[in-house]
Amino acid sequence: xxxxxxxxxxxxxxxxxxGRVQCQSCAHYCVLKPGERGRCGVxxxxxxxxxxxxxxxxxxxxxxxxxxxxxxxxxxGY
Length: 78
Prior knowledge:
Helix content: under 10%
Mean pLDDT: 84
Low-confidence stretches: none
Oligomer: single chain
Radius of gyration: 19 Å
Number of strands: 6
Largest sheet: 3 strands, antiparallel
Number of helices: 0
Strand content: 25-35%
Order of helices and strands: EEEEEE
Strand order of the largest sheet: 1-6-5
């Protein structure tokens, strides 16, 4: 459940005690002290819970043509 726009408690982490948490979302396995952000910059330790700061936000928006290689003129008669 989102706390506020773009912020939600992360799913993949574990508590280590003394206010620290370990992010398990990628191979860096960042250990974060209270208030610190991970190497990715989008996960933050707040009150001994790991929060994602970009939940529900688009990571990329591209306008791509429908016909791309290798499907150029795949259904040209339709």
